[in-house]
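Quick sanity check, UPF0309 protein E4U91_15415:
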Amino acid sequence: MSDRRLAGQFFDAAIGLLQRVRDEEAEAVEAAGKLLADTVADGGRLFAFGAGHSSLAAQDVVYRAGGLALMNLLAVPGVVGVDVTPATLGSALERVDGLAGAVLDTAPIGAGDALVIVSLSGRNALPVEMALNARALGVRVIGVTSVAYATETKSRHASGTFLKDHCDVVLDSKIAVGDAELTLDSVPAPFAPASTVVTAALLQAVMATAAGSLAERGVEPPLLRSGNVDGGHEWNGRIMDEYRERIFYRH
């Protein structure tokens, strides 16, 4: 099979997944967007968290041109992408009990805020405890996960529950367990993951919905512009000054 044909198959698989989440998750996307808009309008703060490669989609909505300036990254040292050596340490930290509580105890997050938690499997202790503890603080939680893991794998949290069990809104990425879209007889393992593509698209759909929801109620969405267009820095400076008490990545 040619490399070009494999590339085409991956694009087809990713497009198919995007169409599924567009059609099947429309109600959840609307609910998540409204939740974020409500939080902004009510004076709350926005945060996003993801561990490992799930952090990529979380980072994609923070300090992003065309995105909400109020979205802050809730960073957990050692689990943001592959920022530690060995990279396997990050995976191990996701299974450590109590880490989420320690992070939330020291983060500027509390009642009335909203937290987006991205975890493909939703089975590890860190995302489960992050959702549990955040809701106990009065934080509203949006979970972005593959619900299939809850029926095909076992939870690694003591409660036996998954991220999806502790959210105000759940967005199902529809990614199959194992996160690999292609197989070949000549290749011993499945390959070509699409979770980042789909999860990032889901979150951008939520951000678009939130911006529209704010505009509908007469609130200017606190959006950032690209610093590479004329006037972008001045625009962003105004937004950051107006919302400086709710933006933490600039401190």
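Posting the structure with no commentary besides this: The first helix runs from residue 3 to 24.
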